[in-house]
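Case 374 in the screening queue. Each case pairs one protein sequence with one candidate compound; here the compound is nicotinamide-adenine-dinucleotide. For every case the pipeline is the same: read the inputs, emit a complex structure as tokens, and attach any notable structural observations.

Predict complex for case 374.
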Amino acid sequence: MDRFRYNSYAQEIIFGAGSLNHLNEVVERLGCQRLMLCANHSMRVNGHLTLVENILGERLIVSLDQIHPHVQDVQFDEALALAVENNIEAIIGIGGGSPIGMAKAVSATLGKDSNSTFPVIAIPTTYAGSEMTPVYGITNTKENPPQKVTARNPKIVPQLVIYDPNLTLDLPPKLTASTGVNALAHCIEALYSINRNPISTAAATSGVHHIFDALLRCYTHPDDLEARSEMLLGSHLAGLSLASVTMGLHHGLCHVLGGTANVPHGIANSIILPHAIRFNAEVTATQLLPVAAEMEIPIVGLKPVIAIEAMVQKLFHYIGQMHLPQHLQDAGAGLQESDLPYLAEIAFQNQTVHNNPKPITNELQIAELLRDAW
Ligand code: NAD
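Case 374 output:
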């Protein structure tokens, strides 16, 4: 049997429709009196934020309800200053990966020069999975071009994660689809990660099983609570697999497309994923056979690389069924074809790209993949 090692993290997970009602009881147990809350603006518009504010009452000292995508440095500086000014003891991130990422980034910086920890509570309403990991990223907009820098810090793993599918019923179809493909990508890159382990593999395999069918149902019937619950479970398992392994070329590229070219994270995932799978197939096909089987590719008797090519074709179709952009030229971020070599150059400096199972030895390999995805 292969050797393995991985870190796991102490987290309390509360899952199920109505589980937001447990928030107060856990905050009480944590003993935190001064809380800050980070949220996407949609959380204010759809009323979820008011619900949380009512639950927390006087404990909630500051609410930041306009967190922008990709945790930008200017807004991070503002959030940090507010946290310090108000002697914040714990931070809640509610919404997508961006407000949860902001909560983690603020917690990491507050805890940097002290032995104290500043607990993070995450209430995810997309399928991005950041709530399960010790990773946070900040986009440095003062650099030209802007670059997203990621770091790992076990102190910022959310101590409490509340998954309440009721809060996802109003996630619009396009965001449902694109953040769902992000969850699928976590499972896929976990399955062939260079430091995969039995737990990440089990979580990722089960994640694909829950996601593959439920995502289409959530896309076509956004208010189907059963499908929403199954999809949230899938994204939890995807996040769990992501937490104990390193990702590869796909995620490295998505971070560059997000941080430098401002492509929304889920859209970057939807465009790049089939290309990244195809790029890696000669090295990773065997690890992805369970995904192919889940996608009903008849794998018996097929060479693994052939089965995975069939899976890639099916994935293009699957992503197309949800009307997501499938070419970088349609990513809606003003990207030009002439930007591709330059993005490949930046990606070649990205550590996640170099954690890819198939070695990336020069930036031309990345440029070629980006051209295929153009
Ligand atoms: P996001 O947080 O930027 O949210 C995307 C959009 O979804 C926003 O417009 C938001 O308003 C909307 N939204 C969220 N919940 C909604 C709801 N219930 N109803 C209506 N609208 C809703 O994006 P994301 O895709 O969730 O997360 C991406 C970010 O998370 C990226 O910055 C990515 O790098 C990061 N991420 C980090 C990790 C990690 O481990 N650190 C993992 C995955 C993603």
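Case 374 observations:
- The beta strands are 12-15, 35-39, 60-64, 90-95, 120-124, 135-140, 147-152, 160-163.
- The mean pLDDT is 96.
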